[in-house]
């Protein structure tokens, strides 16, 4: 069974590797912002936006790789109905962390598996995270420790790194928060082998 991860996320690849799921990496390179904007204009929920992006990524690679099982994934932050995307620069990252500061939000993670250009399975998980009340210097200090590549690829907090310290409460599956609900993926793959 050939498995492909339609993502350039190093963390997602690492989760698959740790769980003995051998896969190739082929990023889908879709314009996520354009898709999000279009779906938001249609009043789509954050869950639907996350699911559609995961499906779009998986289907795009799946059409090029017949008979392969292609995993697409996406995560979005829902802050009281406001969708928060990955930052494009450090100033945007600072603004996002200030918006989340002291607030509870949902991190919605979706995964989709496609074969021959069509989705054959999907799952969406929501985790609740409450960020501590931090002062501006604490937020700036945190941002200084994150490399640009990580900041722009994975969003403003890396739960697998120092990002865990930003939160007073985390409710949800840690792998889902990192971007891949691995247990659900393993359950599905074990059924189709």
Brief synopsis:
With 193 residues, the protein is α/β, with parallel strands linked by helices.
Please explain how this structure is put together:
With 193 residues, the protein is of the alpha/beta class. The chain has a single domain, classed as Maf protein (Alpha-Beta Complex), CATH 3.90.950. Helices cover 42% and strands 26% of the residues. The protein has 8 helices and 7 strands, in the order E-H-E-H-H-E-E-H-E-E-H-H-E-H-H. Strands 1, 2, 3, 4, 5, 6 and 7 form a 7-stranded mixed sheet that branches. A hairpin with a 2-residue loop joins strand 3 and strand 4 (82-84). The longest helix has 19 residues, at 46-64. The protein starts with a strand and ends with a helix.
Which tags fit this structure?
193 residues; alpha/beta; 7-stranded mixed beta sheet; 8 helices; globular
Based on the structure, what is the oligomeric state of the protein chains?
single chain
Taken as a percent bin, the fraction of beta residues is 25-35%
CATH architecture descriptor text: Alpha-Beta Complex
Q: What is CATH's topology name?
A: Maf protein
Total tally of structural domains: 1
């Amino acid at each position: 069974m050939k498995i492909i991860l339609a993502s350039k996320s190093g963390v997602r690849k690492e989760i698959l590797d740790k769980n003995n799921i051998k896969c190739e990496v082929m990023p889908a390179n879709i314009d996520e912002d354009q898709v999000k904007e279009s779906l938001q204009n249609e009043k789509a929920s954050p869950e639907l936006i996350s699911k559609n992006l995961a499906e779009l990524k998986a289907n795009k690679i799946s059409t090029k790789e017949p008979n392969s099982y292609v995993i697409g994934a996406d995560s979005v932050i829902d802050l009281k109905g406001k969708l928060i995307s990955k930052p494009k620069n450090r100033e945007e990252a600072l603004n996002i962390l200030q918006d989340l500061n002291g607030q509870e939000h949902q991190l919605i993670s979706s995964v989709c598996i496609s074969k021959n250009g069509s989705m054959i399975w999907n799952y969406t998980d929501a985790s609740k995270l409450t960020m501590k009340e931090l002062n501006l210097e604490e937020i700036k200090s945190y941002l200084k420790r994150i490399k640009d590549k990580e900041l722009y690829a994975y969003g403003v907090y890396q739960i697998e790194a120092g990002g865990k310290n930003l939160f007073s409460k985390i409710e949800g599956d840690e792998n889902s928060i990192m971007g891949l609900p691995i247990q659900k993926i393993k359950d599905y793959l074990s059924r189709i082998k």
